[in-house]
Every structure is written in structure tokens, then in C-alpha cells.
Design goal:
The complex is a heterotrimer of chains A (about 500), B (about 325) and C (about 325). Chain A is α/β, with parallel strands linked by helices and about 500 residues long. Chain A contains 17 helices and 24 strands. Chain A has a six-stranded mixed β-sheet, with helices on both faces. Helix content of chain B is about 70%, strand content about 0%. Chain B contains 13 helices and two strands; from the N terminus they run ααααααββααααααα. The longest helix of chain B is centred in the N-terminal third of the chain and has 30 residues, at about 5-30. Chain B is globular. With about 325 residues, chain C is mainly α. The longest helix of chain C has 30 residues, at about 1-30. Chain C starts with a helix and ends with a helix. Classes of the chains: A alpha/beta (about 500), B mainly alpha (about 325), C mainly alpha (about 325). The interface of B and C includes residues 127, 291, 292, 294 and 311 of B.
Chain lengths: ~500, ~325, ~325
């Protein structure tokens, strides 16, 4: 490897494996000194894992990183900080109950016998802070600040330590436009002063505004590193989502004319006047990039608060909790299966009936035989690969866990089934099987809504496609041979019609 | 957004309210009884409860990290007995005290190690130590209080007065001041708060969480031990069954004083005022002839009320407990 | 391999307990001449019954990830209430019913504070501990200020002492029935299934439409009910009621449950395991008494067993819970 002094960081063949899954499969790229280098990728692409390795929070399984030409393999975050790499994580690492000043100096206080002394970089901190928001006082209790302000405090904290490389993971996720542009200006200023910024964000507009270079991660692999000059947003989106080989779309067999559910002018703090309808026997797809609002739509259909109306079978339904939603005939396969879908300690057999225990009860008692039969039925129908039905679900692969959650949902026999990222983290074979299950459901007369950030999935599966961008519905298309994926990508990238 | 004054206002608010309640209670008892509002009574109250004040102040620091110690009663009892026994063996009192404090420190080390290194919940760990400590106290004295064979000067320190104040009160004032300084002015207090408020952030910032927590467990244990010595000296007996619900009083005082079970917030002052409230209620009710069980009931009500206020309505909704509220430490996508 | 370890562990704990129990019984049979007698066994089982009756319900509660520290006070309160009412002319059956209802009420208080209001179960149930204990003293006072009540009607005492079918004391029968009921619930009822689900993953349970607040509330009420039942039985058998009984009983219950393999985090546990745990503790205590080992060694052993069991289960538990 020749030493290129233009590069502050050189990354070669970084791999990271966890039991059962390879999160990073050989990532290589260079980061030029004094540039703003952006990293993009959909959820699950491996961004967070990579950042953890770069900043010392986790070790790589294989591969090498060089910092200023010297090998860099930190064991702790403090190692990385000592070498000049500071990081702003996605979860706020701020202590609510301390003041701003205390947070800024946390862990780095100068002291004599445990009595802290006045920090000498206090003025620097004050001026950086004032640049962002001059209403924040050093003595304010952080817990009293708004989320945006908390983020500003954390950014200030990173800036106050003398770092040469600043890693920012989704720094503007909770900021307003005004605050975001302030941060953009600061980043530009830092870059002009020689700092290198590694900027992770899914907000493409920001990437194009301040980025010099962009690296695209997809499924744990580095798909490409390019200069942002001359690139257009749709170009980037294409790079991120990959070549879309249309999975062969087969329309659902029903007439799909009867409206079974309607949403009118639903808004939350994120969603803007969402209106759409759902026909009986159809597969409706919601497509958009991360942050477009897909999950929020799923949430309002499953008990979250919202303004506006939801009608089912022409009656307004008021759903204030998950139980209300289930009673109204909605069932959700959640996005986070490990946190919200499975019961890890329990066996496959014990998981499946839990959304509808009636199906395994005989004469008021739970019947072991009914449980076994039910489990066998779904294991067979969904091709769940478990050594036996007593296998704890936590030990199954992602795809099979997802199938168990789907089985649990199907067992409820709801009219409307919502599936949030149904095949994320699922291998190709299981993906196909799950798609076939969805098709069967529609053909039986159920209505399915699929929320996905995988274009291939949407175009291969759905009868109609709703395109979302920035919390609003941009357009609804009917699927068919004339579907233009380029056009879709443009729309969800925010391109004006 | 001037959040500073709001912050100061709220902090003072809770302690201020507690102070008001304290004053109100004093007025009530003073007017309802003859003997309450006398210097002698106050001295008496404070002397008898100096241990509570000291231990609660120290334990506030521990509780700010989100941990707590149920074994304080046991350590107190064990220490009192050990101290008395050593005294009966003719060991000079200062040395006996030192040995006892070391023993107390050992309890603290065990508690701390179980919680930090072995990841056992503080509830189980200190509960287990409560049994072991309580049992050990009975063991070394053979089940009998150590009364006889004590040297002449056993009680003298605790019965002395310096500058007109009984020694126990003086020690309490000194101790509380030390802990106040520790909590408000040193890094230990700051780190304790950080650990309770956001353990991850504290660890990421480079704070040695395990060492801090361990240290605080030892601190609490040593103070509980000291309390045991003080109590034994004061009553002139090493009683293995003394102060049964001491640990509960400590925790009630701390929680009423504004420190939630999960830690983060909390002040030594608040704890002290709350402890005084509990003490005054106990004393006042005694004077009014109200019996112990009512006091127990009241204590239970206070506990639940204190926790409800602390945990449900903390700081005007900053910790939103609504079903769909995002935890304030993460960014919603 | 991991899942083999997991299952081996859950059942392993029971196997180990049975082994310890067998060793204890055999050992004590040799070590002490008084051990192998009907009287002795009956005494042990009577003591164990008090704990097991309550622990049956408390076990299912802990499986949801919650627990109740007020059971000792509720037991004492119930004993006093029943004794008081009986002494003052209330027919036995009515008195028992009323006591059980009030005891369930204490459970309801816990349900309100913990399940509905979301207060930490440690604090909330300790609050109830204080209040219930206080009321126990209050009622004792109504009877004349003394702590112990004498002069109870004939059938009050008979109720507790007359053995069922002339053979087995009532308390032991109730214990077996309680164990049977809860073994049944945990294996064959919707309530049981839901409890395990809640303990395994509260969020998933809510998302699956399980009424988590309702179920936990119900379990708290049941624990109160059974604490009341135990209180009534104990006081009837002994023939007097004291407001000071049951101090520390909540810890006996928790130790039995944890020893039996239930994790404080929830999702794992069985009634049978708890029974074994309670028997191990019971016979250990019995052995210590028979061998003349002073009582305080018991307390120390208690603490050591508690910590030791937890240290051991840490090794297996955390992996499975992940």
C-alpha cells in the first residue's frame, strides 16, 4: 500500500462477522484529508457497524485501517479519541441531569483531588455554542433543552476536543431546517480549517449540499465511492438501491374493487395529510427512502395517535392502542422483529398462537394437541426451518424468526395485514417464500399493505404502489408492465414532477 | 429560552416544598403538644436519629447512580455488636472502631463486587448480604445483646457535648456537610449523577463506572458501620436486632428527598430535609400518643406518594411517560 | 449446543434440587434420630405450606417480571382480621370470605400502583407492606391493645387443626391444591401463556394484543388473595393471631421462587421448581434446628444460598435472555 498523504484514513477490506451474519463483507475506501466524506446506505446496510469499528467501539473481524499512514486499530473509544477521531453517535450520549458545561467536560475534567478546576477551553466552548444557538447557557440543565439543542451540545462537545476527524452519524435527524443549515455552515467552516468530516445521513439533500465525496454501502458491501461533483440525486439513489431486476409481477386474482379501508387527511408530527384507500384482496405497497414516513403510516394504522380519520368498511374506527387496532381487524408484522415481534425465550410452538390464543383453546383450556397441530401447520405452510417446534425462537435465523412472526399474525385471521419491512435481513430463499405467502393472502381475499424500502420487493409484489417522500404521499401508481423504475426513483428522491 | 431560571426554580422548588412541609409539621406538633417545641426534645430527636441522617446522606450518592443498599441495617447491627465485643476484650475504643469500620468496608466491597463484576441486581445482592450480615451479627454475640463487661468510657463519647451540641448531632452535621460537598462540588458527585442519568454516556465519556459504583457501595457500608458504632455507644449495648427497618427509613428519606430509584437526580439537602420530616413525624406522633402502627401506615403512604411524585410526574413531563413518546435520549427516524 | 444447555439448565435446576433434597433427607435421617417421624415431617410441611401457598401465585407474578414484597404484611393482617371477626361473633365461613376479599384488596392496591400507574414494584409493594402491617396492629388494638389475641371461638381453631380425612392437616392440603392449581394454570391456561409472554418480551406482548396491564393486575390480586388464605390458615392452626408474624416472609417467598429457577427478569420458571426450592429451604432449616445449629446460621445460609443461586444462574440465564 503506497502512502498517499492526501488520505487521512485508508480502509482496506474491513469485515465484521457476528454469529450467524456477516455485517460487513470487505469494505475498502479512502478518506481525503480536509474533506467532507459522506457515507450512505439503507437500514441494515452496515453503516452503524462500520462507524463502531472506525471509532473504536467495536473491533473488526478482518481488515486494516490506516490513520495518517499508521495502523489504526483502537480497542476503546478513548483510543480513537486520543488519536484524534471523535464521534457523534445516533443515540444522544448526553447526561440529562447535568448542566451543559458539565456535559462538555464530562470525563475530561482537569481537577485537583477530585475538585474540578475551571476548564481552559471554556471560552472556546462558549463561542462554538453561541454560533449555534445563543440562548443555550452553560449552566442550563441539559434535560430541559429541546432535542435539537441537546444535539447541539453534543456536537459542541465533540468540537471542543481537538480532533482531526469528526464522525457524525445522522446528526440532523431531529433538527429544524434552520438548525440544520447552521450545522451545515459549521461543518463547512471546520472543513475549510482543515478538519476531516465523515458524515452519515440518509438525507440526500444534505449530502449534496456539503459533501465532497460519497461512499455507498449496500448489504454490507461498499458499492462505490465517488466524488459528488456532477452527480445527481437520482444517480445516487440508483447506486444505493442497486440494479432493479423486476421480480415478475403477477396481479392478485380478485377484482380489487371494493374499498375495505380508507385513510383521510391523517397527520402526525411527521406525516402530512396522508390520504389513501385500500381495496379488498389487493397488495398495496408503500415505497420511499429511509425517513420518508412509511413506518409512521404503519403506526397510525396500529394504534398510534394521529389527526384525521381512518375508516374500515365505511365506519370510522378509533384506534388508541394496539389492542384496539387488532379488534378493528388490523394485524401488524413489525419492523423490529427482535424487539417487538418475537418471544425469544419461548419455542416456535408457543410463539405462534399468542396473537389469537382462542385458536388453541378447547373448552376453555389450552390444548397441547391444538398447539402442536397449529405449529405444524404453519411450519409446513411457511417452510419454517427449525429443528423442531420446541426450538426457542431466539436461536432461529432472521428469516425464520420473521416467518414465525408472520405465522403469529396470520393466525389472527385479520382482514387487513400490515407488514413493515417484511423481508429485511432475510435470505433470498426465505424472501421468495414470504412473498408467495403474501400473494396467497391477497388471493384469499385479505388485504395486505407492504411497507418497504426495497424497490424490487415493491414492484414484484404490489398491485398498487404509493410513493412517499418527506412525510407525504407523492404519487400512487398501478403496477403493471408499464411501470418505470427510474421514474419511481426520481419521485422518492424528491425530484419535482 | 431562559431555561436556567426554570431549572433553578424547579430544583429549589422540591427542596423548598419539603422545607415548607417540615416547618408546617413543626408548627403543628408544637401547638398540639407541650413538650415538642423544646431544645431538649430536638436534641433528643436528632441524637437518636443521627445515624439515619448520616447514612441517608451517604446513600444518596449511591442511589444517584441507580443502585441501592438494603443491607445497611445489617451492617449497622453487625458493627454495633462487633464494636461492643471488641470493647469487652479490652481493646482500646479507637482501635476497636477502626477494626469495625474495616469490617464494614468489607461488606461494602462484597456488595459492590456482586453488583459491578457479577452483574447481580442490587436488590438481590444487598438482600443476600442483609441476611448474611444480620445472621453474622447474631452469630458473633451468640444471640445475646452485648451489655456487660463494657469499659467505663464506652458511652462517654456519644454522651459528651462539644460547643453545647451533643456529639452525635455534631457528627451528623459534619458528615452531612462532607457528603454535600462530595455530591455537589467534586467529580464523584458529578460522575454518580452521570452514571445514574445515562450509564452509556458516562462510560463512553471515559468514566470508570464500575469503580465509582464500587467505591460508593464501600462508602455507604462504612457509614452504616459508623452508625452502628455510634448507636452502640449511645445506648451502651451491642444489640444485634437493633433498628430493624432502618434500611427502609434510609430509602424513604432519599426518595422523598427527590432521588428516584433509577438515579440521576437528587440532592443531599433534599434527603436531609426529608429525613428530618420522617424523624419529626415519628417524634411528634409519639408525643401525641399515636401508636407505632399508625406511624407505619403513614410511612407507607409517604413512600408511595413520594415515589408517585418522583417517578410519574418528574420535572414537569421532561421524562414523558406517554405510550408513544420517544425516550428523550434517542432521535426518532 | 446452546439450546441443549438452555433446556438442560431449566430442567437441570430441578434435577439438582431433587438431588439436593434427596441428599438432605438421607443425610438428616442418619444425622438425627428425630428426623424421620411423622410429627417432624408434618411440622416441616406446615411451615413450608405457608410459603408455598403464597409462592404459587407469586411465582406466576415473577414470571411476568414483577414481584410483591407486601405478602408478609398481608398475611399478618389477614390473620388478625379473621381472628378479630370470629371473636366478635362473625360466623367462620363469612369471616374467611371477608378476609379473603380484603386481602385481595391489598393485592388490588399493588395492582393499581405497579401495573396501572407504573411505579417500581419494589417501592410500591413495600409501601403496601407498611400500610398493611400498620392496619394489622390497628385491628389488634381494637381487640384491647394487646398484640396477641386469645379467647377465639371453638370452631375457629378446629378449622385449622382438624385434619382432612383425619389424616393430613388442612394447610398441607391447601398447599397441594394451590400447587396443583398453578401448575395447571402455567401449563394449560391462556393466563399462563400470556404471563410467560409478558415476562419474555413486554413490547411484543403488547404488540400481539395481550392485555398486559390487566394480566399483571390480576396476578397481584391473586397474590394478595393467597397471602390472605395463608394468613387465615396459619392463624387458625396456631390458635392465635399476632400482628408481628410474617416479617420477612416476602423474602422466604422470593428465595423459594428464585431457587426454583424463576428469573427475576421474567419469562422463565415453574411451580414445581418453586415447590422443590421451598422444600430444600424448609428441610435445611429443619435440619439446622434438629442438629442444634443456632438460628443465625440459618439466616447466613439464606443469604449465601440466595446470592449463590443467582451467581450460578447468571452463567446460563443471560445468554438465553439475549
Amino acid at each position: 500500500m503506497t502512502r498517499n498523504s492526501d488520505n487521512v484514513i485508508e480502509i482496506r477490506d474491513i469485515e465484521k462477522s457476528f454469529p450467524g451474519v456477516k455485517a460487513l463483507k470487505g469494505v475498502s475506501f479512502d478518506v481525503k484529508r480536509g474533506s467532507v466524506h459522506c457515507i450512505v446506505g439503507e437500514n441494515g446496510a452496515g453503516k452503524s457497524t462500520f462507524i463502531k469499528i472506525l471509532t473504536g467501539a467495536q473491533p473488526a473481524s478482518k481488515g486494516e485501517i490506516r490513520l495518517n499512514g499508521d495502523p489504526f486499530a483502537p480497542h476503546h473509544v478513548s483510543d480513537a479519541i486520543a488519536r484524534g477521531i471523535s464521534c457523534l453517535y445516533q443515540e444522544l450520549n448526553i447526561v440529562e441531569d447535568l448542566s451543559v458545561e458539565q456535559n462538555l467536560s464530562l470525563g475530561q475534567e482537569k481537577h485537583s483531588f477530585l475538585f474540578p478546576k475551571k476548564a481552559d477551553n471554556l471560552d472556546k466552548a462558549r463561542s462554538i455554542l453561541a454560533d449555534f444557538d445563543d440562548t443555550i447557557q452553560l449552566s442550563d440543565r441539559v434535560g430541559n433543552l429541546s432535542v435539537a439543542q441537546k444535539q447541539i451540545v453534543e456536537i459542541t462537545r465533540a468540537l471542543v476536543t481537538d480532533c482531526s476527524v469528526l464522525v457524525m452519524d445522522e446528526p440532523t435527524a431531529a433538527l429544524s431546517l434552520g438548525e440544520t443549515s447552521k450545522i451545515m455552515r459549521v461543518i463547512e467552516r471546520l472543513r475549510d480549517n482543515g478538519m476531516t468530516i465523515i458524515y452519515i445521513s440518509h438525507k440526500l439533500s444534505e449530502i449534496f449540499e456539503i459533501g465532497d465525496t460519497v461512499s455507498v454501502l449496500r448489504d454490507g458491501e461498499m458499492v462505490g465511492t465517488q466524488s459528488l461533483e456532477g452527480m445527481t440525486q437520482p444517480d445516487l439513489v440508483r447506486l444505493m438501491l442497486g440494479k432493479v431486476v423486476a421480480e415478475h409481477y403477477i396481479p392478485s386474482t380478485g377484482p380489487r374493487t371494493e374499498t375495505v379501508m380508507e385513510v383521510r387527511d391523517a397527520s402526525t408530527h411527521k406525516l402530512k395529510n396522508i390520504s389513501f384507500d385500500l381495496k379488498k384482496g389487493e397488495i398495496l405497497g408503500f415505497f420511499g427512502l429511509l425517513g420518508a414516513g412509511k413506518t409512521e403510516v404503519a403506526e397510525i394504522l396500529f394504534g398510534h395517535a394521529h389527526s384525521g380519520d381512518i375508516r374500515k368498511d365505511n365506519q370510522i374506527v378509533s384506534m388508541k392502542s394496539e389492542r384496539d387496532a387488532l379488534r378493528a381487524g388490523f394485524a401488524l408484522v413489525p419492523e423490529e422483529r427482535r424487539e417487538e415481534g418475537i418471544f425469544g425465550l419461548l419455542s416456535v410452538m408457543k410463539n405462534i398462537p399468542l396473537m389469537n390464543l382462542k385458536t388453541v383453546m378447547r373448552n376453555g383450556l389450552v390444548s397441547g394437541k391444538a398447539e402442536r397441530d397449529l405449529a405444524d401447520k404453519y411450519i409446513d405452510a411457511l417452510q419454517i426451518a427449525a429443528s423442531n417446534r420446541n426450538h426457542p425462537v431466539a436461536l432461529l435465523s432472521g428469516g425464520n424468526q420473521q416467518k414465525v412472526v408472520i405465522a403469529k399474525c396470520l393466525n389472527r385471521n385479520s382482514d387487513i395485514i400490515l407488514m413493515d419491512e417484511p423481508t429485511r435481513g432475510v435470505d433470498i430463499g426465505a424472501k421468495q417464500e414470504i412473498h408467495n405467502i403474501i400473494r396467497d393472502l391477497a388471493n384469499e381475499g385479505k388485504s395486505v399493505i407492504v411497507f418497504s424500502s426495497e424497490l424490487q420487493e415493491i414492484t414484484g409484489l404490489c398491485d398498487r404502489i404509493v410513493l412517499m417522500y418527506d412525510g407525504a404521499i407523492r404519487e400512487t401508481l398501478t403496477n403493471g408492465d408499464s411501470i418505470n423504475t427510474d421514474y419511481i426513483l426520481d419521485v422518492v428522491a424528491g425530484k419535482e414532477a | 429560552m431562559r431555561t436556567q431560571s426554570k431549572f433553578m426554580g424547579l430544583v429549589n422548588n422540591q427542596n423548598f416544598v419539603l422545607l415548607l412541609i417540615f416547618v408546617a409539621l413543626n408548627i403543628y406538633f408544637a401547638s398540639s403538644t407541650n413538650s415538642f417545641f423544646q431544645l431538649g426534645n430536638y436534641f433528643n430527636m436528632m441524637t437518636q436519629n443521627a445515624a439515619l441522617l448520616l447514612t441517608a446522606a451517604a446513600a444518596t450518592l449511591l442511589m444517584k447512580t441507580g443502585n441501592f443498599d438494603l443491607s445497611t441495617t445489617a451492617i449497622l447491627a453487625f458493627s454495633g455488636v462487633l464494636y461492643a465485643i471488641l470493647a469487652t476484650w479490652g481493646i482500646p475504643l479507637t482501635l476497636a472502631a477502626l477494626i469495625t469500620l474495616c469490617a464494614g468496608a468489607c461488606f461494602g466491597i462484597i456488595n459492590g463486587v456482586l453488583v459491578t463484576r457479577y452483574d447481580i441486581s442490587p436488590f438481590i445482592a444487598t438482600l443476600g448480604m442483609m441476611f448474611i450480615g444480620g445472621g453474622s451479627a447474631l452469630l458473633i454475640c451468640g444471640g445475646q445483646s452485648v451489655r456487660s463487661g463494657l469499659p467505663e468510657n464506652f458511652k462517654s463519647l456519644m454522651q459528651a457535648e462539644v460547643f453545647g451540641l451533643p456529639v452525635p448531632i455534631l457528627m451528623a452535621i459534619l458528615g452531612v456537610s462532607v457528603f454535600w460537598v462530595l455530591a455537589e462540588k467534586t467529580l464523584i458527585g458529578k460522575y454518580a449523577m452521570a452514571i445514574g442519568s445515562n450509564k452509556n454516556a458516562a462510560a463512553l465519556a471515559g468514566i470508570n463506572v464500575d469503580r465509582t459504583v464500587l467505591g460508593l457501595f464501600v462508602l455507604v457500608a462504612v457509614v452504616a458501620s459508623l452508625s452502628g458504632i455510634m448507636t452502640a455507644s449511645r445506648i451502651g449495648t451491642g444489640d444485634p436486632r437493633t433498628a430493624e427497618f432502618f434500611f427502609m427509613d434510609v430509602i424513604v428519606a432519599i426518595m422523598l428527598g427527590g432521588t428516584p430509584l433509577t438515579g440521576g437526580r437528587g440532592t443531599v439537602i433534599g434527603t436531609v430535609i426529608a429525613a428530618m420530616i420522617v424523624i419529626v413525624i415519628g417524634n411528634g406522633l409519639n408525643m401525641l400518643g399515636i401508636l407505632v402502627f399508625w406511624q407505619t401506615v403513614i410511612k407507607g403512604v409517604i413512600l408511595i406518594a413520594a415515589v408517585t411524585i418522583n417517578e410519574r410526574f418528574s420535572f414537569a413531563g421532561l421524562r414523558s411517560k406517554g405510550k408513544f413518546a420517544a425516550p428523550s435520549n434517542s432521535i426518532q427516524e | 449446543m446452546k439450546h441443549v444447555m438452555h433446556f438442560l439448565h431449566t430442567d437441570m435446576q430441578k434435577v439438582v434440587l431433587i438431588g439436593i433434597l434427596a441428599a438432605l433427607i438421607i443425610g438428616l435421617a442418619f444425622a438425627s434420630p428425630n428426623f424421620l417421624s411423622v410429627t417432624n415431617f408434618t411440622n416441616v410441611l406446615l411451615k413450608v405450606a405457608i410459603v408455598v401457598i403464597i409462592a404459587s401465585a407469586a411465582n406466576l407474578l415473577m414470571i411476568t417480571g414483577n414481584f410483591d414484597l407486601s405478602v408478609g404484611s398481608v398475611l399478618a393482617f389477614s390473620g388478625i382480621l379473621h381472628a378479630y371477626m370470629s371473636k366478635h361473633g362473625v360466623p367462620i365461613e363469612l369471616s374467611i370470605m371477608i378476609t379473603l376479599i380484603v386481602a385481595s384488596g391489598w393485592g388490588g392496591l399493588n395492582a393499581l400502583t405497579v401495573s396501572v400507574l407504573g411505579i417500581n414494584p419494589v417501592i410500591a409493594t413495600v409501601g403496601t407492606l407498611f400500610i398493611a402491617r400498620g392496619f394489622a396492629f390497628l385491628i389488634a388494638r381494637w381487640d384491647g391493645g394487646a398484640n396477641i389475641m386469645l379467647g377465639l371461638p371453638r370452631d375457629f381453631v378446629d378449622f385449622g387443626r382438624d385434619p382432612v380425612f383425619g389424616l393430613v392437616p388442612l394447610a398441607i392440603v391447601v398447599m397441594l391444591v394451590a400447587v396443583a392449581i398453578f401448575m395447571f394454570i402455567e401449563k394449560r391456561s391462556a393466563l399462563g401463556r400470556k404471563a410467560y409472554a409478558i415476562g419474555t418480551n413486554l413490547k411484543s406482548a403488547k404488540m400481539s394484543g395481550i392485555n398486559t396491564v390487566g394480566i399483571v393486575s390480576l396476578l397481584y390480586i391473586l397474590v394478595g388473595l393467597f397471602a390472605g388464605l395463608s394468613g387465615v390458615l396459619q392463624t387458625s392452626r396456631v390458635g392465635l393471631a399476632a400482628p408481628t408474624v410474617g416479617k420477612g416472609l416476602e423474602f422466604d417467598v422470593i428465595v423459594a421462587i428464585i431457587l426454583g429457577g424463576t428469573s427475576m427478569l421474567g419469562g422463565v420458571g415453574s411451580t414445581f421448581g418453586m415447590l422443590l426450592g421451598a422444600l430444600v429451604v424448609g428441610f435445611t432449616a429443619n435440619g439446622m434446628v434438629l442438629l442444634g445449629i443456632p438460628f443465625y446460621y440459618q439466616t447466613i445460609a439464606y443469604g449465601a444460598i440466595l446470592i449463590g443461586t443467582l451467581l450460578l444462574s447468571q452463567k446460563f440465564d443471560t445468554k438465553a435472555k439475549a
